[in-house]
Design goal:
This protein is mostly helical. Helices cover 65% and strands 3% of the residues. β1 and β2 form a beta hairpin.
């Protein structure tokens, strides 16, 4: 019986997880004001009126810059606790941190050699 109770929480999670995010959206749609007009339905970009076609194709390299930034930003988030606990680390955690740094340094060198960091 205890096994069923422990799985009940997981079942409740799967039942409630789609409902909880959808509920505020549905309530806002039902209770929110509906006053569309021509100005509200215009396409804008950062609060300014768009000039020209709004469907333009961006260079893939911009996304690569974003991904590289994201990788090294996440690296800092993961290395900060490791650096704060440096005095209490055992040899395995110390080695794992340096392996992590080595892999990211290897990725940086790879991106550098492939000229992915060159702004074109």
């Amino acid at each position: 019986m205890e096994s069923i109770n422990s799985w009940a929480f997981i079942g409740a999670f799967f039942v409630l997880s789609p409902i909880l995010p959808a509920l505020p959206i549905i309530v806002a749609r039902l209770l929110g004001p509906k006053k569309p007009n021509a100005i509200k339905t215009q396409t804008y970009e950062c609060g300014l009126e768009t000039v020209g076609d709004t469907w333009v194709q961006f260079r893939v390299q911009y996304y690569i810059y974003g991904l590289i930034f994201l990788i090294f930003d996440v690296e800092m988030v993961l290395l900060f606790p490791w650096a704060m606990a440096y005095q209490q680390l055992d040899l395995f955690a110390f080695g794992a941190g340096f392996l992590f740094i080595f892999l990211l340094l290897d990725a940086l060198i790879y991106a550098w050699r492939k000229d992915a960091l060159e702004w074109v």
